[in-house]
Amino acid sequence: MYTRIIPIVAGILTAGIWAPTLRYRDETFWLVTTLVDDDRAADDASRWDNVIFKATDPYDPASWTNAVHFDFEGYDTEPFWDVDGKTYITGAHAWRVGPRIELAEANLETGEVSEWLTIWNGTGGMAPEGPHIYVKDGWYYLLAAEGGTGIDHMVTMARSKSIQGPYESNPANPVLSNANTTEYFQAVGHADLFQDASGNWWGVALSVRSGPSYLHFPMVRETVMVPVTWSTGEFPVWSPVRGEMSGWPFPPKNTDVKGPGPFIVEGDEIDFEAGSTLPAHFTHWRFPRPESFTVSPPEQPNSLRINPSRLNLTAINGNYAGREGQSFVGRRQQDTLFTYSVNLDFHPSSLEEEAGISVFLTQNHHLDLGVVMLPSDSSTAPLRYSGNGMTRQSDTLIPHLRFRGESYVPVPNAIIAPLPEAWLGRTLRLEIRASNMTHYSLSAGPADAMSETRTILDVSNEPVSWGFTGEVATRRLPYPEF
User: Fold this and answer.
1) Is the dihedral of CA 8, 10, 12, 18 positive or negative?
2) Cα distance between residue 328 and residue 369, in whole Å
3) pLDDT tens readout for residues 168-224
4) Hey, is 4 helix, strand or coil?
5) What is the CATH number of the domain that holds 23?
């Protein structure tokens, strides 16, 4: 379904789909979301393109309809079906223009909406957004996020006897937040409520694993779930987000779910067997060019051939990548501690021809280790290595190892070291290892001689702790093997 709208903003870093809400009613899945053109001014109503999709089979791309557009100057839109049969959409008005939650009656088939009404301004926190409405015990309960998406993030609620208000704020607000605490999980907000098959209530929310310092959280926002008690006629009571929790009994484990993606609970060891495809949980940056990736090519089976792109990971200026695409494939970080490695078979011949691995968040936030062809006098430091010397020929291009980083916060200076002579012509193993909560170790060495592996540097993960989406360990390689 995304391919029908993504080309509109294919080159812009912060534009794209924001905060989709998925709801199920009458055997149909409804997805309401906002396509944001973040290059436009905050008070330009055309920056918000709100759209509706529906499908009877969410796992089948062909089941999804084309986008139905509706007018709304804002984002975080959600469908709601009232008990009288009327359908509404709620949303967060563009908060830099007017921070408020709005409601309109809507035809989800055509996108027609009535006049937008302000139903709540929140409790005074910055940017009231992410609204959801629930009907229970004769009340309309309105849930919202406030405080921005950082350390002051929180969940607030209000209720009314009429869907159009007035809404009375919950005296216990915020109902969920870890602001002003020492908890490891911070920035808790943008929540939703649901009942399980046993009738128990649960809340889900976004959070980051940062601690109160809010400096080291490379996985950025993740989903957390907490038990909720919702007594008749009362506001729901949420359990706070903690590192260790207990809750309502879980149903029996069931992994019999449609769709191509595997359940990712353990590490991967991918050999790219002949006839296979890229794993469904591998990801690209920007719209991928399928012709850039070949699984198990005949000339080098059990490998992934990646054709080089003209653009590097920062691309044009950190915010744009144009329509040429980037030769990029990665796997999202899902654990605080991990080891990720790629076997690289790469023989550069041109100046600045490069392949390698990256701790990648966005075009403006990444830490790269690659093999690159540079003049022989480019070295900034020797690579500590014993027994074989280093390749040093004047006025020639030779392969080097290079670290460099890009971020809005300071990153270490580039490290450039010529490949040791004994490594030339051999398959190399490049590694990213997170051995604690704050740093990555980047290493390299021959794939067939682990004892020769050398740590190039230990680097803080603060440069890739930013924004919403989370870090991806990636490879930008012509012939990597796993």
Assistant:
1) positive
2) 14
3) 999 999 999 999 999 999 999 999 999 999 999 999 999 999 999 999 999 999 999
4) helix
5) 2.115.10.20
Chain segment 417-427, per-residue pLDDT in tens: 999 999 999 99
CA nearest to 157, candidates 103, 105, 193 = 193
208 neighbors 185 (Cβ within 8 angstroms)? yes
The set of residues, in sequence order, having a beta carbon less than 8 Å from that of 389 and lying 6+ positions away, is 420, 421
Pairing of strands 185-195, 168-169: unpaired
The reply to whether 109 falls in a domain is yes
What is the amino acid identity at position 12?
I
Q: Are strands 28-36 and 222-229 parallel, antiparallel or unpaired?
A: unpaired
Do 310 and 228 share a domain, yes or no? no
Number of domains composing the chain = 2
DSSP for 209-236, please give it: E-TTTT---TT--EEEEEEEE--TTS--
**Are 474 and 328 within 8 A, CB to CB?**
yes
Q: Residue 299 and residue 342: Cα distance in Å, rounded? A: 19
340 assigned to some structural domain: yes
In the numeric block, which tokens belong to residue 35? 């396509």
